[in-house]
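[Archive record]
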Amino acid sequence: MRSAPPPEAGYERGGVPDLRGERVLLLPPQRVEGGHPDLERELVYALETRGPSVTWIGPEALRRRVAANPGMGLDPDGLPVDRFLSGEIQRIGDPLFGLIYRLAALEDATLAVLPVLVREREEEDGARVVELAVALLHPRSGRVYWYGIVDGVPGAAGDLPATASAVEALARRLLR
């Protein structure tokens, strides 16, 4: 029996709720296989700029909070996200659920944006396109509201404008 090919850019499942007025945990990108080194900073900037009515709790704030609570044993940079890469998920289970639940509880977050994978895809002409696979979750129930793969414009490997265009595409999708 053949398994389905992995999803490509443009794939999405579920719907994005209105984020206005919500406290949203923006987790660090988990698996990074390309893109510019300033990817995380670009991601925070794009979401904060496009969604000023959302209270964003970004990766740096989250890392500081976790460092201040070492007994919780949390690492926002090393979450077990491989299940997202092997099939559709309606609801996350443990250990990922427990980790995100505790991270969200630290900040009283009502939603969580989890950048699962960042990768570069090579085009036929040799240009590279940054793709982001991202999940929008309810941290208290584990429900996956939305999962999608967005991409940006072609550029050179590790190109900042190509990376920025991918995070802008994500911001446009999450914040309409």
In short: The beta strands are 12-14, 23-26, 31-33, 55-57, 111-122, 128-137, 144-151.
